[in-house]
Specification:
By secondary structure, this protein is an all-beta fold. Helix content is about 5%, strand content about 40%. A five-stranded antiparallel beta sheet has the order 1-24-23-22-21, with no helix packed on it. Strands 4-3-2-29 form a four-stranded antiparallel beta sheet, with no helix packed on it. The protein has a four-stranded antiparallel beta sheet with strand order 5-6-7-8, with no helix packed on it. It is globular, with a radius of gyration of 20 Å.
């Protein structure tokens, strides 16, 4: 853990951290008050005695400068964008960013796919600059409706699976890049896409390569074949790639480096079978998975995991740009934990349903 992620906690904070940490499964000068805006939705304020033991609201408040970068988030009530500069805790509402209730950042947070509030919440939009205006991709997507989920690349390409085909949106034009007849009752890995930088990829027929979905050219050769069936592919900001499979029941993931070498050996990453969204931390050291069982974060070195801190529902997860920390948007506020041990350390009293963690 880098020094920049260490948080000094007082005696009361130590007690709070110990209580909230019950949700972890082991494996190995004050800043100015943040600017307030109408779009910021805070979590309910309770007296200390009214907060249950173990509740994340017992965590100490996050302090300015503890974590780097900006928290780019959308409120739980109106899906309005709120940006918190974590170095100062100043809150702003950038102009030109459309409301979004669900988001999919690209691997390096250079593009952002999103879905608006109802009644058009099946529409998929894309912003080629994360804090810029979005345009319609022409795709429609209902999370969990088909295996494989939705993928966005750093240049704004978006792919989605429709059960019998994979469709790709480029500059608002949609093309079918793969069509097939699904096998009833069997997870169909032909639906699964992933993003590696500016490319949308799938697992090659040899099971030892990742290929471009449109040109079918090899993007990366892998040191070993991947078990079947593949359920998800994702990459980190620095180009590590995690491929998850269902060969032994619940998903297990293997992390491959930029040269195709194995960086993290195959290990369990979630309990739920149906994966809806993934995020891989820099260096491939940790993965966050949203499955049918909710969100889980796993340190792939120590195998420590974090899920539902303080029994709070988790709506979204984002890793810090340096990969040292993770933020969880829970129903009781944004929980910050260090990736090294996945112990909850601090709380931002704000209610968000979608998160991206951007550099400063």
């Amino acid at each position: 853990m880098r020094a920049s992620t260490v948080l000094a906690v007082g005696a009361a904070g130590v007690v709070a951290v110990a209580a909230v940490a019950s949700s972890i499964r082991g494996g190995g000068d004050a800043a100015d008050a943040p600017a307030t805006t109408a779009a910021t939705e805070t979590t309910p304020t309770l007296t200390a005695g009214a907060i249950p033991v173990g509740d994340v609201r017992r965590l100490p408040e996050v302090t300015a400068g503890t974590y780097p970068g900006r928290l780019f988030a959308f409120t739980s009530n109106l899906c309005v964008v709120v940006v918190t500069d974590l170095t100062t805790l100043r809150v702003t509402n950038p102009a030109g960013v459309d409301n979004a209730c669900t988001i999919w950042p690209s691997p390096a947070n250079r593009a952002l796919a999103s879905q608006p509030p109802p009644p058009n919440d099946a529409a998929v939009r894309i912003a080629t600059v994360v804090d810029g205006r979005s345009t319609d991709t022409g795709l429609r997507y209902v999370p969990g409706s088909a295996p494989g989920g939705l993928t966005v690349a750093d240049n704004g390409l978006v792919a989605a699976c429709y059960g019998t085909s994979v469709r790709l949106s480029r500059d608002g034009r949609v093309q079918t890049v793969r069509a097939f007849t699904p096998v009833e009752g069997v997870f169909d890995e032909r639906c699964v896409t992933g993003a590696v930088g500016r490319r949308i990829v799938q697992l090659g027929a040899d099971r030892k390569s990742l290929v471009d979905v449109t040109t079918h050219r090899v993007v990366r050769r892998l040191a070993s074949p991947v078990a079947a069936p593949v359920v998800a592919i994702t990459s980190s900001p620095d180009g590590m790639v995690l491929i998850a499979d269902l060969a032994d029941g619940p998903p297990q993931g293997t992390v491959f480096g930029r040269s195709g070498n194995i960086v993290m050996t195959r290990t369990p990453i979630a309990r739920g079978v149906s994966i809806r969204k993934l995020a891989l931390a820099r260096d491939g050291i940790a993965v966050a998975v949203q499955s049918s069982r909710g969100w889980e974060i796993t340190n792939l070195l120590s195998h420590a995991t974090l899920a539902a801190p303080g029994r709070a529902r988790v709506d979204d997860v984002a890793f810090s740009p340096d990969g040292d920390a993770v933020a969880l948007a829970t129903e009781n506020g944004v929980v910050f934990a260090n990736v090294s041990d996945l112990t909850p350390r601090a709380l931002l009293n704000a209610s968000y349903q979608a998160l991206a963690w951007l550099p400063g």
